[in-house]
Amino acid sequence: MRLVFLHTAESSIALFDKAARDANLAALELTHVVRADLLAAAERAGGLSAAIATQTQAALLALCKDAHAVVLTCSTLGTALDDALAARAAPVPVLRADAALAHRAVKNGGTVAVLFTAPTTYEPTMQLFLEAATHTGAKVELKMVDGAWERFKAGDSAAYLAAIAAAADAAYANGADVVALAQASMTGARGQVTRGKPLTSPEAAIAAAVHAAALPD
Predict the structure, then answer these.
(1) Are 150 and 210 found together in one domain?
(2) Residue 107 pLDDT > 70, yes or no?
(3) E strands within 63-177?
(4) Full residue range of the structural domain in which residue 92 is found
(5) Does residue 185 sit in the same domain as residue 208?
(6) Contact by Cβ (8 Å): 10, 36
(7) pLDDT (tens digit, 9 = 90+) per residue, 161-180?
(8) Of 58, 73, 55, 52, nearest in space to 3 by CA
(9) How far apart are CA 162 and CA 146, in angstroms?
(10) Are residues 143 and 107 in the same domain?
(11) How do the residues of the chain divide into helix, strand and coil, expressed in percent and rounded to 5?
(12) Are residues 74 and 107 in the same domain?
């Protein structure tokens, strides 16, 4: 089974490869394509514009050619997958990593704390988790990890992950039943959290993509 991932950060590649190994899915063939320019454009525009969405859709459709499923891993670009892409009839399943995470996070209800770091991620993440929660009654609380994104962009991954881990511990201490790390770049903080085991998008996306690719046509 061949899964193709569209990332906006080179560092995401290792995170998804590790998620596949941890799930004992050695038979998977993972291919990674990085389009940092799409996220950079969205940040300059203050969010996902129609033009950037169109570029993202075109990139995803091009990746379908040699895949059993395609996964978009960037939360900021996520809404490019909504109705417009479906209307263009992708030949294989095309998934949002953050959508897989949202469905897993809210499935048992309760209080779900969703942590994010990039300002442009707020709107698509809020929309996604609230929509998923309407089916389960989960209470969704979004929290930005202040200052973390600046550390990520400066290349200070240690400080970035430490800030996320501290925010996750605080969320658990404040009564969250589930903590979800909304962006793939946040995954490495999971092992530093002491009060619980946050959910991450690589593990959720790998499972969802395998499931979708295995479904009969």
Answers:
(1) no
(2) yes
(3) 69-72, 94-96, 111-116, 139-144
(4) 2-96+203-214
(5) no
(6) yes
(7) 999 999 999 999 999 999 99
(8) 73
(9) 12
(10) yes
(11) 55, 15, 30
(12) no
